[in-house]
Amino acid sequence: MLGTVRPGEPFTVTILASNTSAEPDRWRFTVNSVVCGKPLDTAVMAYAAESVGASPTTPSPEPGKQFCVLTMQAVNAGKSMASWNADNTVSLNVGDTRYTQSQKDSAYASEYAQYWNSKGQVAPAFGINPGSRGPVHGVFQIPVGDEPTSLWVTSSTAIETIHGVEPGYVVQLP
Question: E strands within the chain?
């Protein structure tokens, strides 16, 4: 573990990837909020539907589950353009149970990134240059009635590899 922070406290990770000889990516993150039990943002869902010529819908979580939406800011603290998102790099934890984004949840998070990009706030998922910042959203589903206790943000390209759980930060939720 690299450290423990609370929402609003910035922390920096160096993304270690074994498949490159380039300078590692560095990111400074600040978790703004995790909101559970509410529908996904209607403006985001309307934008996503409009972009493909469909009628807006309100997605439902899996039976017995609730959506939790993570909002954080990311600053590229590295030396070159880099991209980053919450896929396989962030978990939302309820006690010792770890929830990561499913493929569908990842698609919802991508819709948030596209919506904010349309508003002039380029998400790191699309790549940003050193010193630039952008919003990151993660969408998770946890059981109805559960409250998340923490987040794990890894310093690798995946939370868990063949070597086990990779180093990262715990964000202790209120």
Answer: 3-5, 11-15, 25-36, 65-76, 90-94, 97-99, 133-143, 150-154, 160-161, 164-165, 168-172
